[in-house]
Amino acid sequence: MLLGIGQCTVVVPTVGRPSLDVLLDALAGASGPRPAELILVDDRRTGAPLRPGRPGLPPVRVVRTGGGGPARARNLGWRTARTEWIAFLDDDVVPDPDWYERLAADLTDLPADVAGSQGRVRVPLPEGRRPTDWERGTAGLATSSWITADLAYRRGALAAVGGFDERFPRAFREDSDLALRIMDTGARLTRGQRWTTHPVRPVDRWVSVRVQAGNADDVLMRRLHGRDWRERAEAPLGRRPQHLAITAAGLAAAGLAATGKPRAALAAALAWAAGTAEFARARIAPGPRDRAEVTTMLATSALIPPLASWHFLRGALQHRRVRRWRGPPDLVLFDRDGTLVRDYPYNGDPALVTPVPGAREAVGALHARGVKVGVVSNQSGVARGLITRAQVDACMDRLAELLGPFDTLQVCPHGPDEGCTCRKPAPGMVKAACAELDVDPARCVVIGDIGADVEAAAAAGATGILVPTPVTRRAEVTAAPRRAATLTAAVDDVLAGRW
Questions:
Q1: What are the Cα distances from residue 196, in Å, to 116, 179, 245, 432?
Q2: Where would I find the Glycosyltransferase 2-like domain in this sequence (predicted)?
Q3: Is the pLDDT of residue 61 over 70?
Q4: Domain with CATH 3.40.50.1000 in the chain
Q5: Burial letters 230-257, b for 16+ CB under 10 A, else e
Q6: What DSSP state is assigned to residue 50?
Q7: How many angstroms separate the CA atoms of 427 and 332, rounded?
Q8: What pLDDT digit, counting tens, does each position of 334-368 carry?
Q9: Residue 494: is its pLDDT beyond 90?
Q10: Which residues of the chain are in CATH 3.90.550.10 domains?
């Protein structure tokens, strides 16, 4: 039995390149049933809204990151989706006409321990001439492992590891890092039978110089995954040792010349020249050898070794100490009175629902990253006869108008002596919110202003963060394992993975 394609969402991060139209045309014209949704993640800082509409596409939704980079864009995409499977496509690929059908077949009857399925990628090279250095590099995608040009993951597997590590700022290594972390959980990744074409996009002559920034990301990979990360990710080392040697020779030549040692400086300069010439020859020989390619290879071959070395050293300094990526939680639950709004005891008047400073920004920041948001609130005034449940609901509706939307609103109307399982510090409301939204409590954070909020989180298996106010007791502040000075500071920590 084939997997229902409705159980899958296609996520495409984009910076608005013309190739996006080619991709959308291919998806619109492909045969077979459509997935539940196509989510386009606009990763531009500015620009006119995307207009993807065309007949034949599945339902399309466009969300924006404001320019957070490819890892953040993919995270926003899968967090926004609600299906079991998330199929990632890059915005410069062209799926085959039967891609929908083969995707469904690839995901059908996969064992529970299979967390992802990689599509197969072809890179067409020019006919009638040898490929350029850039074209040969792009062709390597055809044999690369776990690239998100076409890769489907179970949503639960992504949530379990916090998704893509947003410390990788480029479209480089972030997909390998994710694959290794998912496989570290004991899950497997497989290769499917669907195909996409990855054309070689046009670039300027200096692109090989700019991509050397990825050497810093290689350092982060080693810090996170150990010395053998390349073998596990099937990522060859490349020429970094030679680049370091060439750079050292060049620096030695300059230093020796400056200190009045011409013979030693000449020897070092010859070593630099020989290394640079060998590097240029290795890039020129397999290529078309026309004037434009040769001059580009000569110029960039002199620049790449020192730049590669510089970015490698920069990465070594930047990533001296790193923690395993957790990402934002899947769900943040807020206490209401004293945390999101000013505390008016037993308030039943929606006109008195007044957000505290920073509440709009805090909730908005979570929405912008695709984190689900809810409220868990004790309302014992109902049991005491001071307010009605209708008044509580009216105040909650007003809260949603001011700060929402909220994915869940949990209210306990019981008194402290009724022995219910929902009144904080009992875990009932936290557990109910997680169950309603299909979130593992371990991926949930509760933010509140008193000890009962933190205790309810701990009892449910979630993480609690205390944001003290003047009414918070000193003992509660001391006992709280995690505290933040303000609501916005608490959300900043949560979004940075410090929870």
A1: 17, 20, 39, 42
A2: 9-122
A3: yes
A4: 331-495
A5: bebbebeeebeeebbbbbbbbebbeebe
A6: P
A7: 15
A8: 999 999 999 999 999 999 999 999 999 999 999 99
A9: yes
A10: 5-202
Neighbours of 94 (CB within 10 A): 20
Indicate the SS3 state at residue 217.
helix
The residue behind tokens 């700019």 is 210
CA–CA distance, 164 with 328 (Å, rounded to integer):
11
* Token output for 397: 């509706």
Cα separation, 411 vs 334, in Å, equals 12
- Rounded Cα distance between 437 and 313, Å, is 44
Q: How far is CA 156 from CA 102, 115, 456, in A?
A: 22, 8, 24
pLDDT tops 90 at residue 5: no
The pLDDT value recorded for residue 53 is 86
Local confidence band at 1 (pLDDT 50, 70, 90 cut-offs): very low
**Quick check: 431 and 460 in contact, CB under 8 A?**
yes
Euclidean distance between CA atoms 364 and 136, whole angstroms? 44
Any idea which residue has 């916005």 for tokens? Answer: 488
Amino acid at position 312, single letter: F
What is the greatest pairwise CA distance in the chain?
96
Residue burial 415-434, b: 16+ Cβ < 10 Å; e: rest: beeeeeebbbbbbbbbbbbb
Residue type, 471: V
Residue found under tokens 């609501």: 487
Name the CA dihedral angle for 484, 485, 486, 490, rounded to a multiple of 10 degrees. Answer: -20
What is residue 246's predicted lDDT score, i.e. its pLDDT? 98
CB atoms under 10 Å from CB of 218, counted, come to 22
Rounded CA separation 465/483 (Å)? 5
Tokens of 465: 């963060």
Give backbone dihedrals phi and psi of 463, rounded to 5 degrees, phi first: -105, 135
Q: Is 14 helix (H, G, I), strand (E, B) or coil?
A: strand
Residues annotated as catalytic are 335, 337
239 in Cβ contact with 280 (< 8 Å): no
Q: Residues 132-139: what's their mean pLDDT?
A: 96
Peptide bond before residue 405 is cis, with ω within 30 degrees of 0:
yes
Architecture, CATH, for domain 5-202 = Alpha-Beta Complex (3.90)
Strand pairing report for 37-42 and 60-64:
parallel
Instruction: Look at residues 327, 429, 325 and name the one whose alpha carbon lies nearest to residue 378.
Output: 429
Q: Which CATH superfamily is domain 331-495 in?
A: HAD superfamily/HAD-like (3.40.50.1000)
How many beta carbons lie within 10 A of that of residue 348, not counting itself? 18
The whole-number pLDDT of residue 3 equals 55
Closest CA to 326 of 233, 173, 444, 189: 444
Give the end-to-end CA distance of the chain in Å, rounded to a whole number.
41
Q: Is the pTM higher than 0.70? A: yes
Q: Element (H or E) spanning 276, and its range?
A: helix 262-284
